[in-house]
Each structure stands twice: as structure tokens, then as C-alpha cells.
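Sample intake sheet
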Amino acid sequence: MRFEFTPRQNAFRQELRDFLRAEIPGGRGDGGVDQAFSKKLAARDWIGVAWPKEWGGQGLGALEQMIYTEEMITANAPRGYHFTAERQVGPSVIRHGTEEQKREWLPRIVNGEVSFALGLSEPGAGSDLAAAATRAVRDGDDYVVTGQKIWTSNAHLADCIWLVVRTDPDAPKHRGISCLMADLNAPGVTIRPLVDMTNGHHFNEVFFDEVRVPVNRRVGEENSGWYILAEHLDFERSGIERLIDLQYLFLELLEEGKRRAAAGTLTGAQRSALAQTWIEYNVGRLMCYRVAWMQSAGLVPNAEASCAKVYGTEWSQRLMNVAMQVFGMNAAAFLPESAAARMANGYLESKNKTIAGGTSEVQRNIIATRGLGMPRS
């Protein structure tokens, strides 16, 4: 069986590629947070391409959204300003927000006017998000929020935060959670950097000291946030980015393998490992496309999204292990501006993949219970 995109989908991909070649000299950007670039995408109606037209989208399908994401990441386009708002916040507001919230927030997202971070994990609630302890106490027309979030990506660059809070401390932990949209510039918010082992500042810890958030910024019913959050995470886990993020390193590794093969220095084991990794890469892409197809058919790919997440993140670690085998001690030396240094950095970055967005252990539990119907232990 051959899997083919439609002529319209292929034309959409080519239009994206032409735009990216013109906008990004050399064909590869810095992958940063650039509102000006987001504004250029907004001018072409390319933020929220799969959103309903009534809310500023193009009404295209999940497959087109995946094509868009794939091309943006391949070019390492600086889409970080709008990405979280487009992928997770906007769809949640569309499905669960009030009419007032839709009118206020959705145009700002598709026009590249507001950015979001995700306030999910806490020091005592990493993969078990239902254990979130950040409190939101109702006080008139506001919630008063107190607590801490950690590993909050790009909070230092975002305008707002999608915040998971506990609004009923006496309810069972899955039933006392609500979702708020809070201003990161509000009084009482403190953001501190967390520098990772690659010496990069991507993560942050965010503290909330009696921060007032208007009640009209709660999405969904009070204490029903867990169900919104579970769906919200499926938007994240079903993405193709975990494979495409490392595509450029993978292609560079394959070129290095070809050079070593021509020189007679590539071992048989390394040759087999490269071939196996190439096969696994294509399998992973098909798993992501399956998730997108299910979404386009109106299905809920809950277990399937977890399958794609486990496979893609564990593939990234296998890939970088192979890279270390091929480059050997040169990679460990971090030679400046070299392919070996890029592989070493990629190796370190791959270590968080099976933790961020829900650990592989959590994903396997979802696959077992929701996908295979196995009882909880």
C-alpha cells in the first residue's frame, strides 16, 4: 500500500517551503521566539490552519496542520511565539471556552498578538498532573492563586500562562482542578530561569504569590479542568515535532556515515544501526500521520497519541546513541562548530524527551488502560 498526500496537500507543502526559503536565509533558522515572524505567518492566515473558519482558521484538517508543523520544524523557523497558543490553548478555548473568551482570545492568537506558556508541572506533581497543589481561592470576581510551577518552557518570553490549579482541595484529586489563563506580568508572579545541562535557558520555575486572576479567565466549569487537561495533553503528545526536531542531525549523521563507509572506517555494526534508525524514523512518521488522520476523521487518538509519544521520544534517544557510536570521542570533546559537537548537544537534549510531556511510564499506562482495556493494578 502506498500512502500519498492529495494534490492540494502537496501544493500547500510547496507553498510553505517557498515562503520559508524566502524568509530564512540558508534554509534553517534559529528556532527561537520571534513575534515578527509570527506576524508574517498571521498575514498569510497560517496560524491556526486547522481551526474553524469562524474563529480565524482556514478550516483545513489535522493532516494539513501536521504538514505545516513538519515544514516549520524542518526549517527551524522561529515559530515559538505563537506555537503553544496555536497548538493547545486555542483548541481548548474553541472546545470549552465561553463565547466571550472565544471573541477575546482566538483573534489575538491567530494574529500573533499573544503568546502562552504552559503551567502544568510542579515540584511535587511532575507526570502526575492531577496532584497539582497550586491553589486558586475564589474571592469575588477573581481567583487568588498561590503556588509554584516548574519546567515551564519559555515562561520568560511569554505573555500569558495556561495554568492548572486546584480549586477544591477536599475533592478527589482528579475532580478539584480548574484551568485558568493568567497574565505573566501580573503582580505577584516571579519567573526564575532553570539552565539545563547544555547551558541553555529554556525552562523556568514560576512562583505565584496571591496573584489575582479574573474568574472570566477560567476555561470550562470549575473543578472540571482535568478532562480539559487530558484532551489538552493529547494535542501535545500527538505531534510530529519529536521526530522532525532531530531530522537535521539525522541527515548529518547519515552523511557522516557515507563518508566513513567510503573511507572504509564505518563498521558493520554501525552500518546496520544507521539502517535500523532510518527504518524506525519512517515508522515513527507514519504513526504521527495516523494520529492526524484519526483527528481529521473526528476520532479521539488518546492511546494512539501516547504510542506516538513513546515511540518518537525513545527513537530520539536511540538515534543519538548511534551518533555517539559513529562519532566516538570527537563528540565527547565538543569540538567548536563541528558536527560532532552538534551530535553531543543533541545527545544531551534527548535525555529529557521521555520525561517532558508525560513520562514513558505514564504513556504506557495510558496505552494499557485506554488502548488495550487492561484493568488498573
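Comment: The chain is about 50% helix and 15% strand. The radius of gyration is 21 Å.
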